[in-house]
Write a structure and sequence with these properties.
581 residues; alpha+beta; 18 helices; globular
Length: 581
């Protein structure tokens, strides 16, 4: 038998491959092992807002930062694998209906760490949102990971019951909602969206039938129900005989499990197979006489949903977006400092420096504006907010959610570009998961169009923009250091333009105003974040600190606020050099 002769081959350069793999291992080793202690920007921003109060929470934040960077990071990867996603088990072995959602064990390991941090139990002392949202931001650096949405929903339920719930409902549900023990706590969900009414909540048709014991039975369908495994449901429905539109809606809470141990009267049709936030279970459900309890006064339902539940989620959504941006920055920076190409580490290439500078700046800007919103939310929760501050919050909570979510997707894409083809590989980096989650965050709690139209309505009806601009102007008045005077003048000039364009916008015919409000809102948020960054930089200097925030402001001013031409611009190149170091 004749055998084919193989050509001689040169052995693969195994030593070189090992060297490159060691380089990649070095990249992972260069990532922080504590997301809090490594984040000098966050710590400085918290000091600006909290002052000496921060010291009492440093240990809690550092512990959460260590967990987020290590154990939670690994568990988040595990729970997001296709084979480990949540699945539905509607009946037990004896045929009893349970509507159970089964999670990978790592999901529950994550929950024990997250709730054990006190992120929800701190609501027992109203006004602690700064710390709670800082904790949430640290956890969100692993993406939604199955727990960020439940945290936002639970926060909304806690605030709803505290502000509008009957004493009986507070006594029944609040202790477990505030419980930091994951294995005994209660977490909440929101069932608002129906097939015919997503953003158009007034079109909702679920009917609530009053019962002799004061409860209601709710019938109908809910189309997008996130956190379907939750023990407490917050939902909207229309009591029998109520009027149409949002005025006819009432807010209800419903326990998943009834006092006799049976499952409440709802049926899960299927779990949603989503682009992102896949470790968190979302579903379509039928309400077949769901036992529920009204919260607040009839006819005030939509007001409670928006003012308390949705606005709380919008604050959380902004910090979730900020968490994605911060993680993208850390991944890209560590990779750029480690990866070699063409004889040098890629951090030395100007376009990589530009991407790193942009990510660092975007991260700081999102934290700056989101902490501003949270400061207002904390004052409202503590009952200390003036009418002016409540109006400022009404404007900024919608504008900030819109801007942070749309910018986060852009930022994560920039981070992926730094990693090149490796940035698209799920096993290589968290980046693909961050991108998928960011796209979902953009639509949660109001799409960009819905939020911009809400801002427009509030401008016309309540002049919220004028109040918010006056508040921001007063804060700029406090920046009196001569070093900052030219920068303050630049921000004031942008603020004045936003005021003038607001008048133009409101003078347009309604259709034209709807078209142009997003362009105006983009300019407003670029200006607002520039102002917040500058105010933080001035506070840093007054404390004798320097985290590079003034350089961040300068880069934000040139590239975002002023949208300066980068072609041949040596000043911008020098800022990129400084911010990528």
């Amino acid at each position: 038998m004749q055998h084919e002769t193989r050509p001689e081959t040169t052995p693969a350069p195994k030593g070189r491959y090992d060297e490159i793999r060691a380089q990649l291992d070095g990249w992972r080793a260069n990532l922080p092992d504590n997301f809090y202690t490594a984040d000098t920007n966050l710590r400085s921003s918290l000091r600006t807002w909290l002052g000496d109060e921060l010291a009492a929470h440093e240990e809690r934040l550092a512990n959460a930062g260590a967990d987020a960077a290590t154990a939670l990071n690994e568990w988040a990867k595990e729970t997001n694998r296709d084979e480990n996603l949540p699945h539905l088990r509607r009946f037990d072995g004896n045929g009893n209906r349970t509507e159970q959602v089964v999670f990978h064990p790592a999901y529950h390991d994550m929950g024990r760490k997250i709730y054990g941090s006190g992120v929800m139990s701190l609501y027992g002392d109203p006004g602690q949102e700064m710390i709670q949202l800082a904790l949430f931001y640290l956890f969100a650096q692993n993406g939604e990971s199955g727990h960020c949405c439940p945290l936002a929903c639970t926060a909304g339920a806690i605030k709803l019951l505290m502000r509008a719930g009957a004493d009986e409902l507070k006594d029944r549900f609040l202790p477990r909602l505030l419980d930091p023990n994951y294995d005994t706590h209660l977490h909440a969900c929101q069932f608002l969206t129906e097939l015919q009414g997503g953003s158009d909540v007034g079109a909702n048709e679920c009917v609530a039938v009053p019962q002799s014991d004061g409860s209601y039975r709710i019938y109908g369908e809910k189309w997008f129900c996130s956190v379907i495994d939750a023990g407490l449901i917050v939902l909207s429905a229309r009591p029998e005989g109520a009027g149409s539109g949002t005025r006819g809606l009432t807010t209800f809470v419903a326990p998943r499990t009834l006092p006799d141990g049976s499952t409440n009267d709802f049926a899960i049709k299927r779990l949603k197979y989503k682009l992102g936030t896949r470790s968190m279970a979302s579903a379509e459900i039928d309400l077949n006489g769901l036992v529920a309890y009204a919260v607040g006064e009839p006819g005030e339902g939509f007001k409670y949903v928006v003012d308390i539940v949705l606005n709380t989620s919008r604050v959380y959504n902004a910090f979730a977006s900020a968490g994605l941006v911060r993680r993208a920055y850390m991944e890209a920076l560590a990779f750029a400092k480690t990866r070699t190409a063409f004889g040098t580490t890629i951090i030395h290439f100007p376009l990589v420096k530009r991407a790193i500078a942009m990510l660092r700046t975007e991260s700081a800007a999102q934290i700056a504006s989101s902490l501003h919103v949270t400061h207002l939310a904390a004052k409202i929760s503590a009952g200390e907010a003036s009418e002016t501050e409540q109006t400022e919050f009404r404007f900024l909570v919608n504008a900030n959610k819109y801007w942070t979510s749309i910018r986060a997707t852009f930022a994560v894409r920039q981070g992926i570009e730094v990693l090149g083809g490796n940035g698209a590989i799920e096993e290589f980096t968290v980046m693909p998961r961050l991108l998928r989650d960011s796209l979902v965050f953009e639509s949660w709690e109001g799409t960009h169009n819905v939020l911009s139209q809400q801002v427009l309505k509030d401008m016309a009806r309540y002049k919220v923009h004028a109040v918010a601009f006056d508040q921001l102007s007063s804060r700029l008045d406090a920046v009196t250091d001569d070093e900052f005077s030219e920068r303050v003048a630049a921000v004031r000039s942008a603020l004045d333009k936003c005021r003038a364009q607001a008048d133009e916008l409101l003078a347009f015919d309604p259709i034209a105003a709807q078209l142009h409000v997003r362009t105006w809102l983009d300019r407003v948020m670029a200006m607002w974040q520039a102002a917040d960054l500058l105010i933080e930089a001035a506070a840093e200097k007054a404390r004798g600190e320097d985290t590079g925030k003034l350089t961040v402001f300068d880069y934000h001013r040139r590239t975002i606020l002023e949208n300066a031409d980068t072609f041949g611009n040596g000043e911008i190149a020098a800022l990129e050099e400084a911010l990528s170091a």
